Amino acid sequence: MYVLTPLERAWHYRELIRAVVRRELASRFRGSILGWLWAILGPLVALGVYTFTFSHAVGIPHSAESIGISGYVLSIFAGLTVFNLFGELAYRAPGLLHEHSQVIKKSIFPSETLAWTATLRSSVYASISFALVLVFQLIINHKVPPTALLLPIVVIPFLLFLLGITWFLMALGSFTRDVVHVMISIVPMLMFATPIFYSIQDVPHSMQIYFHLNILGNYVEMTRDLLLFGRLPDLLVYLGTAVVSLFIFGFSYRFFMQYKAVFVDVI
Amino acid sequence: MSSDVVISCKGLGKAYQLYVHRNDQLKQILFGFWRRFHRQHWVLRDVNLEIHRGERVGIIGRNGAGKTTLLQLICGITRPTHGSIETVGRIAPILALGAGFDPDLTGRENAMIGGAILGLRRAQVQARLEAIADFAEIGDFFDQPLKTYSSGMASRLAFAICVHADAEIFIVDEALSVGDAAFAIKCDAFFREFASHGTIIVVSHDLTTLQTICSRVVWIEDGEVRAFGKPSDVINAYRGNLDTLVA
Hints:
A: mainly alpha; B: alpha/beta; Rossmann fold; 6-stranded mixed sheet; 26% strand
C-alpha cells in the first residue's frame, strides 16, 4: 500500500502527466534553430571534452588503465549522466511549487504530479545520453554487453528514488527558500562522494561500506556495471538500494500529501 | 447527505496563518508542537450551506469577505481549518480564467492540458477540440501561441474548455464579463441548459445579472453568511447595507 498508492494516483493522472511532459519537452528547444539536435549535441560536446582532457591534458587513473581512455571516458560520462539526473532535480525541486503557484492556487491542479513531470522530463534527456553511450560502445568495441538489457531493473528503483527526493524537496522548498541554497552547496559535495571520476573499487576496502551508504553512488556503479562492463550488480547492494529507494518514495509521497493543502496557503 | 445535495458545508471555517518572518512557517512545522509561530486570521467562520443539484447559486459580498476562499474550499484546493465540506461530482472551476495557460503553447495544446487537469481522457479532449474552438470563437488563432491572444480570447478559451468538461458542478468567479454581447448570450444559453442537470456557483459583483440567473444567493460578510435565500431579498438587503456604508 505504501508504494502502491502513489503509483495508483499517478496512473489516475497519466493523461495530465503526459500532456505536461509533452509541453515541457516541446517548449525546451522551441525557438532555437537546431532544436532537438541540442539534446544530442550537448552530451556529444561533453564526451569530446572528456576525451580531450584525459588523452591530452591529464592521464587517466592507474585503476582505469585496463579499460583504456575510451572506456574511462564512457564510464565518467555514464556516471555523470546518472548524477546529473539527480542534481538537476535537486536544484529544481525546491522551486517547483513556486514556479506553478498560479495554477496550484487557482485551479484544481494536482501538485503531486509536478514531481512526475519533472522526473520524466529529465529522464528523457538522460536516456539520450545513455543511448549515446551504447552507440559509442558499438563503434569502439563493436559490441554492447548483454547485461545492458537489464538496465530497467536499476532504472525503475532509481526513478522512484528521484521522485521521492523531488517530493520531499518540493515540500520543504515551499516553506523556505533556503532549501535551494542548501542544495547548491550539497550537490557538488555529493558529486565527489559519488564514484564518478573513480570507481568504488579504488576506495580502500575498510571505507567501501560507507560509500555503499550513498544510494546515488550505488546507482552509478550498477548502471556502469550493466551498461559498460557486462557485470551483474552485487545482489545484496542491489536489494538494499532498491528497498531504501522504495522507502524514500513511499515516505516522501506521504510527507508531501500531508502538507499538500498547506502549500496553497504558503506559496 | 441526501441524494440531491451536491455541496454540503457544516460549521466550515478557514484561518490563514500569518507569519511575521517567512521562515517561521518552517519553524511551525518543526517545532509547532511546543510553540506557535503565527497569528491566526479567520477568513471564514461557521459557514453552513446546503446546495442541491440544479441550483444556480450566486455568492456576493465585499472584497475580502471570503468569497474566493469559499470557492477554493469547495474545489478542494485548500482544506478547512474547522468543520467539514462534502461535494459530489466533477467540479469545473474557473477561479481565474486561464490561470494554468502556458503563453508559449497554442490554444489547442493548452486545451489538451486544461482538459487533462479537469480529469478528461486524452481521447475525450481530442474529440471535443473542434467544439471547444467553435464555442470560444477563436478561429484560426486556435493553432497560434496563447501570447498572441487578446485577454478576451484567452478567457473565452478557458470558458469553452470548462463548458466541455462534463462537469456536474460549474464554478465561475467574476467571469460573466467574458467576451462581447454575442458571447454573453451564448454563455447564458449554456447556463440555462446546464442548470437542468448540473449545479452552478457564481461569484460576481454584477448584482443585476445575478438576480436574473440565480435561484438562490448567499451574502458573505466578514467571513460569515449574512443571508442565504431568494435572490431579490438577499441582493436588496446587500444593497441596503452598501448604501449605509456610503452614506
